[in-house]
Amino acid sequence: MSNTEETIIIDPVGMNIVNRIAPGTKFKGTIECSGGLLVQGNFEGDVTVVNGPMVLMQEGVIKGNIKCDGDAFLFGKIEPKDSDEPSDLTAAGDVFMAQTLDAKANITAAGIRSYEGAQVDGRIRTVRKEKAAA
Amino acid sequence: MNDHSITRLVVGEAMTLTIGVPVGQRIQEHDVSKTIRWRNGRWENNESLVNKLRKAASKSTDVLAVPTTSRTKPKINFLAILEKAFSSRKAKMAAWCGIAFIATTAIIYAGLKVYRGGIEEAVFLPVPNNEAVINKDAVRTVEVPFVRAAEEQPAEQLTDVPTIPASPAQPQQPIAAQIPKVEQATAAAQAPKVPPQVPPSPKQESKPAQPAGMILDADGASNKATHQVDHPVAVKEAPKPTQGTGLVAVTPDGKIALFTNPKTRLPERFSVGDKLPSGEVIKSIDKAGKVVTDAKEYRLE
To answer: Nearest CB to B10: which of A3, A20, A75?
Structure first.
């Protein structure tokens, strides 16, 4: 196994990321995004992302239920719900758990890409892509 | 303004992020060798038990691999056994010394055999004693019946018996010989019919009843012959064959007759009961020289 760190290029234009929660922004509620979502702020609620990935930047914080029909790039923090239940993240594609991830959530994805340093406290499930999409 | 510009404006530019060292996400080539996969009825990429044992034994390689599926008996590699037995230097030297010793012994034995065989196969031809000179003075003829006097003829006189010269052209010389008893026995062994010769003199022919005896004076005092004979040959010279009879002498009882063979010029002896070369048996011998066999009658002529 290779010990070299991998890098990934997040290109909003190429990955169709047209939605953004800017740093210092707090959002509480339900949002449905057509296109990818870039979270650099604080989001609490239910979010559904279609036709694009979800990118949780290192400074971003998500709490709630996240659904994505693409890939999910997790660099930030996923907090549990107010009932101390882990959040739920469901992705039809692959979930990239980066080294800076700190999540207390149940992650369900078609594929799991874990990297050294990622902290996940929850259940990790893998499913087939068609079911995840459903 | 197109969407891309808006996106760039809203979201920002492309960002390169370090995601980290992947964990359990890809099986490298070196990882494959550690896996065990079942294919074609056997485990792939699995080191055999024999190899493992050999590696564990490190220096020792005495592992006999016996096939489990084969029903034949394990073959014994004699070369491997010999190689193992003679692996040490001392054993090799001892083996080579043994081989050299065996080869040398065989060569020597073969050489001795050839040498001895040559010696044994050599024909020892009697050297003619050309120096034997018949001394006429030592021979005298007496007209007395032949009497065997074994006590008067000691065995030492064998050496004084002269030999027959090769040339038969001296038949007129009266040669008288008295064969001693011992000499007769020896002569009988070598030449079965070696009788003392009586020269065919007319006196003898007229008196067939009393054949003349030939006395060979072999006494050392009177005999001036200095020759020595290696083998007891009583016949010295074949007398000239005369017409009529070759009979030399016949014993009074008519059982033994001595005559001269005209072909060989040698004296021969016939006795009653002898078997001729033709197969006939002598029944009687006439004093006149007629030999009667069971088939024919012969005259000693």
So the answer is: A20
Which range (B126-130, B160-164, B173-177) has the least confidence?
B173-177
Contact B237, B172 (CB under 8 A): no
Is the Cβ pair A20, B12 closer than 8 Å?
yes
How many C-beta atoms surround the C-beta of residue A28 within 10 A? Answer: 10
The identity of residue A128, as a single letter, is R
What is the rounded distance in angstroms from the CA atom of residue B222 to the CA atom of residue B8?
167
* Cα–Cα distance, B158 to B180 (Å, whole number): 8
What's the confidence (pLDDT) of residue A20?
94
Q: What is the pLDDT of residues B255-283, one digit of tens each?
A: 888 878 888 888 888 888 888 888 888 88
DSSP string, chain A: ---SPEEEEE-HHHHTEEEEE-TT-EEEEEEEEESEEEE-SEEEEEEEEESS-EEE-TT-EEEEEEEESS-EEE-SEEE--TTSPPEEEEEEEEEEE-TT-EE-EEEEEEEEEEETT-EE-S-EEE--HHHHH-
Give percent of chain A above pLDDT 70: 93
Q: Return the pLDDT at B7.
A: 78
Pick from A5, A14, A18: which is nearest to B20 by CB?
A5
According to the model, what pLDDT value does residue B296 have?
81
Q: Backbone dihedral region of A50: left (phi > 0), alpha (psi from -120 to 50 degrees) or beta?
A: beta
Q: Is the pTM of the predicted complex or chain greater than 0.80?
A: no
CA distance A15 to B4: 11
d(CA A121, CA B5): 39
What Å distances lie between residue B199 and A102, B214, B225, B269, CA to CA? 156, 8, 21, 15
Residue B25 CB neighbour total at 10 angstroms: 14
pLDDT score of B234 more than 70: no
Q: Could A10 and B28 be called an inter-chain contact, meaning their C-beta atoms sit closer than 8 Å?
A: no
pLDDT at B10: 79
When scoring A3, A11, A37, A58 by the number of chain B Cβ atoms within 10 A, the one with the most, hence best to mutate, is: A11
Facing A38 at nearest CB: one of B8, B11, B22: B11
Q: How far is CA B121 from CA A55, B1, B67, B92, B111, in A?
A: 119, 133, 64, 43, 15
Structure tokens that stand for B270 in this block: 């016939």
